[in-house]
Amino acid sequence: REPGRERRERRERGAAGQPDSSVPPSGVSCSGCGAELQCCDGAAPGFVPAEKYQSLSEGPAGAAGLRGAVCQRCWLLAHYGRALRLQLPPEQHRLVVSAALRRPPRHGRGPLLLYLLDVLELPDPVLPQLPGLLGPDVPAAGLLVVGNKVDLLPADSPGHLGRLRQRVAAACAQAGLRGAPLVDVRLVSAKTGFGLEGLVSRLQRSWKCAGDVYLLGATNSGKSTLFNTLLRSDYCKSRAPDAIDRATVSPWPGTTLNLLKFPIINPTCDRIFRRQERLKEEATKTEDQLSSEERKYLNHLKKQGYLVGEVGRTFQRQKSSPVVDFDPDMLSYSIDEDPRHSPRKHEEREEFTHNEVKDARWCFDTPGIVKENCVLNLLTEKEVKLVLPTCAIIPRTFILKPGMVLFLAALGRVDYLQGEKPAWFSVVASNLLPVHIATLSNADAIYKKHAGQELLKVPMGGEERMKEFPPLVPQDITLEGIGTTEAVADIKLSSAGWVAVTAHAEEKLLLRAYTPKGTALVVREPPLLPYISTIRGARIAGTAAYRTKKPPSLVENLKTTGRK
């Protein structure tokens, strides 16, 4: 074994094991990302170190011995949250998606496109590209748009979900997606399960099993998480979870590199009836009637998001083996062990028979379409983890006078230049990103001194990191207030988050907002959560900040009780 320091250095380089250019690709897909497993190029998708590749492919099965393995990239993502820098240009992502959609229609009908967008990213930067990606020759039979990550946003007023749905529908119309192809707009949380039973019912009721389904969306929209959840739902053939591995889920953009798929169950009248009976029975339960294990998991989800749901299975196999998820010895290489001496584990893997899949309709997960002009493209893996929210966002509200400045880490800045009265600035961003209030007179000095340091936190790495990081560039914004409880607009600082601005009625504000050069700054009118400034506690004496307040979580499909 290597000394600890050398092992850590190998990890930091993101590589373990050597390639062997003499070995041809396997023809077997990685069960995490769908890329073809190979050991000849360490910078290409699907790479497995040569020694591990050979140990898995030796024996009578040959390359088939790799079935169920994951590539080095997926293994690092699953175990360490680390992403290898792959030589995969954005055009290649689009090429794979576009080529898949242009396949000849199967079963005499074009596919249903299930487009997933991150509601935090509205207006979705990829949605306007969708008509061009499809083109006039793509025989799509329908489009269902799903707004994901609604669990991360607090309810700023009654009916906030209806308003969010309207915002998603408006984004579709603005992108030229309306009329017959647009089947529906839904809101879900792929992570907590909120809205997913409704989505499955909608798919089974309207689409039935008429054709294939393609999951589309930008990188990091949650497609792989949704794919994994649907795989364990009534939308998937009951035996499929035992035969298909789950997609790698990671915050690093562009996780899914090729096409993963599972077979869709045929929603016969009997199956739909049995499913509805299960949902009715579950809706009569209260939290107190759940098992201790179910309550423990539910409380875990409540900490993760404001909206929680349960995704169950109506059709269970009598005998089921658990899915082995990224076992370091069987599915890939162990980063701490010498792969040549790793014990081989033989396990009988489930396989579909020809009759089971010959007429199957499939749900495909496609590569994420890379967002251009996005701040995430400038960040390291550690920085991405801090910037992307993974649990319920707690809004932070500040009252600023003209001449004051708000920093969101070192990724965004909003200056209040002119106005007659104080205004409220509510930050909606990852709870891990710091917010710092300064004055115009010392803001530049603070940025110069603390960018790359602990005070502003992201980017991290000190002066050396900031030398390569793009400078902040300004954009002047003029707003007119509509009241002290309703925001007039959101200033969206690329994918780092946004600042909702609330001002007195008819009060005119001159602001100057900054984002890193090459990233998009968007003024979102109307704001996504117009009453966000009301979710706050008392003013903290001697500061511009208010105490934070976290609204309670809502559990879907459970009978309400008095417990909190």
UniProtKB/TrEMBL annotation:
Location of the NOA1/YqeH-like C-terminal domain: 425-525
The keyword Metal-binding appears for this protein: no
The organism's place on the tree of life at top rank: Eukaryota
Pfam families: MMR_HSR1, YqeH-like_C
Ranges of Basic and acidic residues composition bias in the record: 1-14
Coiled coil region boundaries: 269-296
Single annotated GO MF: GTP binding
Keyword annotations of the record: Coiled coil
KW Secreted (keyword) present: no
Residue numbers spanned by region Disordered: 1-27
Record-annotated G domain positions: 213-263
Protein name per Swiss-Prot or TrEMBL: Nitric oxide-associated protein 1
Source species of the chain: Eudyptes chrysocome
Gene, per the UniProt record: NOA1
